[in-house]
Specification:
Strand content: under 5%
Mean pLDDT: 84
Number of strands: 0
GO cellular component, one term: periplasmic space
Largest sheet: none
Organism: Oleidesulfovibrio alaskensis (strain ATCC BAA-1058 / DSM 17464 / G20)
Keywords: Iron, Iron-sulfur, Metal-binding
Number of domains: 2
Order of helices and strands: HHHH
InterPro entries: Fe_hydrogenase_HydB (IPR008953), Fe_hydrogenase_ssu (IPR003149), Fe_hydrogenase_ssu_sf (IPR036991), TAT_signal (IPR006311)
Structural class: mainly alpha
Shape: flat
Oligomer: single chain
Pfam families: Fe_hyd_SSU (PF02256)
Radius of gyration: 31 Å
Length: about 110
């Protein structure tokens, strides 16, 4: 027999409890609880952003004096953020190492990748 149409005693008690709670408190209380939760989330977000704004004087990397000094006319990366020197030092390059891995596997080395 299919259990789709049957309800266990525990399931019936849960269902009856939900129905009784809805009958006593109604939909309005659930709506108020949801609104209170959303209001709390909004207050929390505002406080996090306010703390971030007040605690950290430099919030953007382009406003950092050390970064500005680095990219200044007499700085180390004087050719700018997209210049040759910064590209050479700060960007990575792909190197295909699959042949070396296959050679190790052929020798019997077990790799955990």
């Amino acid at each position: 027999m299919s259990r789709l149409g049957t309800v266990s005693r525990r399931g019936f008690i849960k269902l009856a409890g939900f129905a009784a709670g809805y009958a006593v408190f109604g939909f309005n209380m659930a709506r108020q609880a949801c609104a209170a939760t959303l209001e709390f989330i909004g207050i929390r977000q505002k406080s996090v952003y306010a703390t971030d704004r007040n605690v950290y004087a430099i919030r953007k990397s382009q406003d950092n004096p050390m970064v500005q000094k680095l990219y200044a006319k007499d700085g180390f990366l004087h050719d700018g953020p997209c210049g040759h020197k910064s590209h050479e030092l700060l960007h990575t390059h792909y190197v295909d190492r699959s042949a070396a891995l296959e050679a190790l596997r052929a020798k019997g080395v077990k790799l955990s990748l």
